[in-house]
Amino acid sequence: MTVTLPPPGLAREKARFRELQEGFRQQFEHVFPDPMAPRTVVIIPSLTLDPEILAKISGAHHYEERMLCLLMLLRFPRTQLIFVTSQPVDPIIVDYFLNLLPGVPVNHARKRLVLMSCYDASPVSLTTKVLARPRLVARMKEKMQYPQSAHMTCFNATPLERSLAVALDIPLFACDPDLTAFGSKSGGRRIFREAGIPIPPGFESLRDQGDVINALAELKRMDPNLRRAVVKLDEGFSGEGNAIFDYTDAPQSGSLLHWVEANIVDRLRFAAPAESFEPFMARFGEMSGIVETFIEGKQKTSPSVQCRINPGGKAEVISTHDQVMGGHSGQVFLGCTFPANREYRLEIQEMGARVARLLRGYDVLGRFGVDFISVAGPQGWKHYAIEINLRKGGTTHPFMMLQFLTDGEYDADTGKYLTPTGRARYYFCTDNLENEIYRGLTAEDLIDIAVCNGLHFHGASQEGVVFHLIGALSEFGKLGVVAIGRTPERARKFYEKTVEVLHVESRRHHGYTQNLIPC
Fold it and tell me: How far is CA 473 from CA 99, 488, 498, in A?
């Protein structure tokens, strides 16, 4: 079998993609509501993002494993999954997720799961690797049991994912790549302005170092008391494309522009530890960016609203989170708590809904997040919208796991998540539980440790810990954790116990104390 497709990015490919997307509405209306309907879901967990920024994230190639949460779709007994990765996933990790399936025998689920790999660890995106292997694409088409009710899902949609969807001749449950400018830092500021949502003072669509210098000087002129500003790459993510400029000792006179120009190299501090001035500015020139006021505050949080626009045109809020930020500048995403603070979660939910309705009018499709900076003041909380992540993100997979494991739903009236019995569930999640002493622990070790210490998610109580990024543990000492509890405090305690147990067991593993004690 051969695959013939129009050249990427040309009019014929775009026309076919539009045809596939137009047909997706009918599939969504007839197939998605029926849990017994036959369907094939092709999962491409490619992080098709700036490779230079990805290279600064430890274990980045294992981030494809975050979408293993979609194996929970096998709870629908006539659903087939085709899951493609750069390198084969450890069978123990696959079994770990299959054993979490509620109400479905593992053997039944495994028969409907097709795992495929490029056997390629090179630092390019998975979708690039797949497209470079036409025989693999052909095998993917051959494996589809239900091509007429199939669709592809991915981490983020670029022209590469569009090309792959056309090659497979199936629709893509994600935003048309021609619309992804709405998800850039500059595009987000324009959308927020149109939606009437407050944003930090600043400037967007800046093209080069000269524009950055002018914008930094103008911000200081606008607010003489300004202490710091943020410089952001339009396509940066997880805070890795951000830098802080410090105005300490800046003059108030007309020499301000010259002062910024003379000090920009020394005063610009990057969120990514390995970043430096010249490469950062080179990428700024390639993708453009923004400069905006750094929002100060004694009590400051970073909430996020997760939204979804489905193929039927319905726009809705599906969760709120408080993000856990870290790094020396406090701009690197480390994890999140669900739901967001009850003092303001309904406020940001309403703002997120406004953005979703606006984007629906621009034909945006799929999941996306809206990030805020919120500051407490005498009159309550004030919220500044700072970013639209037009893709799945760090808050996507933990909420999907909660839904799949408990079969509950988000209650928009309270901002809580309720199980079918009406009980609330909360979680604390991180993609960045990282410690050098965890290195050497295998997936099998981790599962044994979790079970022996009462951490493993329990279906009856609907509490416990679910791991992801398991493949990064042995080499990088890095792990993802979703700790679910019936109260926020219990969720946090599950996480803290996980950290404590892993620390003790890792030290045993490396021979610091007695030999491992079997359970």
Answer: 20, 26, 14
Q: Is 327's pLDDT higher than 70?
A: no
User: Which residues are paired to 321 by β-bridges?
Assistant: 304
How many Å apart are CA 205 and CA 282, to the nearest integer? 15
The single-letter DSSP state of residue 74 is: G
Name the H helices within 268-395: 277-287, 345-361
**Is omega for the bond preceding 77 within 30 degrees of 0, making it cis?**
no
DSSP H or E segment with residue 104: none
Question: Which structural domain range is residue 405 located in?
Answer: 394-519
Q: Where are the alpha helices (H) located in 123-181, listed in sequence order?
A: 126-131, 134-143, 159-168
Helix extents (H) in 148-208:
159-168, 185-195
DSSP string, 402-438: HHHHH--EEETTTTEEE-TTS-EEEEEEEEEEE-GGG
Q: Is residue 6 part of a domain?
A: no
Q: Give the Cβ contact number of residue 102 at 10 Å.
A: 12
CA distances from 377 to 331, 382, 473 (A): 21, 7, 42
Residues 484 and 399 in one domain: yes
pLDDT tens per residue across span 368-391: 999 999 999 999 999 999 999 998
Q: Which residue do the tokens 């100060």 mark?
A: 296
Give tens-digit pLDDT for 492-506.
999 999 999 999 999
At residue 316, the pLDDT reads 96
Span 392-428, pLDDT tens digits: 888 899 999 999 999 999 999 999 999 999 999 999 9
Q: For 21-43, what is each residue's pLDDT tens digit?
A: 999 999 999 999 999 999 999 99
Q: What letter does residue 70 receive in the DSSP assignment?
A: G
Q: Distance between CA 419 and CA 449 in Å, rounded?
A: 28
The DSSP secondary-structure symbol of 341 reads -
- Determine the average pLDDT of the residues in 329-339: 78
339 or 392, which is more confident?
339
Q: Could you tell me the CA-to-CA distances from 410 to 291, 399, 401, 475 in Å, in that order? A: 35, 10, 13, 37
Last residue of a domain, which of 174, 209, 240? 174
Structure tokens at 238: 């997880």
- Domain C-terminal end among 373, 388, 403: 388
Residue 353 neighbours by CB under 8 Å, 6+ apart: 307, 315, 316, 317
This prediction has a pTM of 0.90
pLDDT in tens, 205-220: 999 999 999 999 999 9
User: 1 lies in a domain?
Assistant: no
